Structure to design on (228 residues):
């Protein structure tokens, strides 16, 4: 079975630009979460979506937004990019947002902001 | 909010030696607990998790972890290190009440010396 897929793999943007990252969950998984992993740190929770509704939001500015589509895939948008947004962005899926469910992670999108 | 502490950002062991990676959580109500491994330029892979039941949990690749409520700990161990164990290890927790929005520690980089 295919795992979580993310696109693109790498991305280079300049300050002030906007970026869209995409994620396809494992088939049958209805919950998608996004995490930001800055070099040398653990992943930080950004958003969680379930059945196309936002279920949780981490401590990130409004420049960050996301949505989930009817096929449960998801997009993460970041506006007005800052140098500090450079990170690995990880998407994770699970069957539901129940606390005991593990999350299955994709390989990530490496975003570099110049 | 949850807080996860991983003592030791870098751990080195000889091949065949015991691996011990430490994880402590902050909440008074025990969360659900997870250990993930991340190889270079890859996403996170679940090693093991504790939700309920037996406090000693066995995972993949010979790893195990023990939940100790009195110590708010969930340390990861492996009796004999292998060269292929060299990677970054993350402890994560999810609150029982807020869904599987994970809080990660800062990670421990494991080096295995031949």
């Amino acid at each position: 079975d295919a795992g979580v897929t993310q696109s693109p793999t790498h991305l280079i943007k300049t300050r002030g630009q906007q970026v869209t990252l995409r994620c396809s969950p494992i088939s049958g998984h209805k919950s998608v979460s996004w995490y930001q992993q800055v070099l040398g740190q653990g992943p930080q929770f950004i958003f969680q979506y379930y059945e196309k509704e936002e279920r949780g939001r981490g401590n990130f500015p409004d420049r960050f937004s996301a949505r989930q589509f009817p096929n449960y895939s998801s997009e993460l948008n970041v506006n007005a990019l800052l140098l500090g947004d450079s990170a690995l962005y990880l998407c994770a899926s699970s069957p539901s947002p129940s606390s005991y469910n593990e999350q299955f992670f994709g390989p990530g999108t490496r975003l570099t902001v110049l | 909010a949850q807080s996860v502490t991983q003592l030791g950002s870098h751990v080195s062991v000889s091949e065949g030696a015991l691996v011990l990676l430490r994880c402590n959580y902050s909440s008074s109500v025990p969360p659900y607990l997870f250990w993930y491994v991340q190889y270079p330029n890859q996403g996170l892979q679940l090693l093991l998790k504790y939700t309920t039941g037996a406090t000693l949990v066995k995972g993949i690749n010979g790893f195990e972890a023990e939940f100790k409520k009195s110590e708010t700990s969930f340390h990861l161990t492996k009796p004999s290190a292998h060269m292929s164990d060299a990677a970054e290890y993350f402890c994560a927790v999810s609150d029982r009440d807020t869904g599987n929005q994970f809080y990660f520690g800062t990670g421990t980089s494991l080096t295995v010396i031949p």
Remarks:
- Chain A has a mean pLDDT of 94.
- Chain A is about 0% helix and 50% strand.
- The interface with chain B takes residues 4, 31, 33, 35, 40-45, 48, 55-56, 58, 90, 92, 94, 97-108 of chain A (CB under 8 Å).
